[in-house]
Amino acid sequence: MMYKNYPLVRKGNEMYFGYMSDPYVIYLKVEKAQKQQDIMVSKTIRLYQMSTDMNSIPEQTAERDNLYEALDVALAWLKRANHA
Hints:
- By secondary structure, the protein is of the alpha+beta class.
- The protein has one domain (2-82).
- It is 19% helix and 51% strand.
- It has one helix and six strands; from the N terminus they run ββββββα.
- The protein has one helix at residues 67-82, and strands at 2-3, 6-11, 14-17, 24-36, 39-51, 60-64.
- The protein has a six-stranded antiparallel sheet with strand order 1-2-3-4-5-6, with helices on one face.
């Protein structure tokens, strides 16, 4: 799946946003979800900016109340970190 021209890969409550060939990607984890009607809706998402060199710790973190807000922050982080 693509979101604003970046790959978004999901497995369960975890997602990676960005190209693994770039210096940084964003790891997103759904901390809380709530059932609305017949679907689960994310309520708390934790974001971590991670270096793609596999020995790294998170560069920065944030928390947002829904997936769209989290992806907007993630997009800004990716653009700043990978194209600076």
